[in-house]
Design a protein that fits this description.
Number of helices: 7
Shape: elongated
Structural class: mainly alpha
Order of helices and strands: HHHHHHH
Helix content: over 70%
Distance between the termini: 70 Å
Largest sheet: none
Radius of gyration: 34 Å
Length: about 140
């Protein structure tokens, strides 16, 4: 209270000087402590505290999500999406299983996907000692 009185007396009614002289951090802390005390006296502390904690968790989750969003390379995403759309369009053009298998194998090579077999799939599967290796 003395800080407020001192700032008022020294400012001589000038609003800007008053706010320059007052200790805003102390007044903020004082106000929060008063509000907490009022909540305790009115027995609304626990429900209010639950809401505050929930909002803090929500805020933290949103900040984490925002950081992840900021790390996304939009141009790389667009390029990758265009490639997937081209593959889907090629799948729609396939007239039979042979065409579809060729498109799939070409896509594996083009996108550098690992195939769990070596050589021709049918030959690999007809060999009783051959195994599929997934990585």
């Amino acid at each position: 209270m003395m800080d407020g009185i001192d700032a008022n007396v020294r400012s001589h009614g000038d609003f800007l000087v008053f706010f320059m002289r007052i200790n805003l951090i102390a007044w903020y802390r004082f106000t929060t402590l008063v509000l907490k005390e009022v909540c305790i006296r009115l027995k609304i502390k626990f429900s209010l505290q639950k809401y505050l904690e929930a909002y803090k968790r929500i805020n933290k989750a949103l900040q984490d999500y925002l950081e992840k969003l900021e790390k996304i390379d939009i141009e790389a995403y667009k390029k990758e999406t265009e490639e997937y759309n081209r593959v889907i369009a090629a799948f729609d053009q396939a007239k039979n299983n042979k065409d579809l298998n060729k498109i799939l194998l070409d896509t594996f090579e083009k996108m550098n996907y690992y195939k769990p077999w070596n050589g021709d799939f049918d030959e690999h599967m007809s060999n009783k000692n051959a195994t599929l290796i997934f990585k």
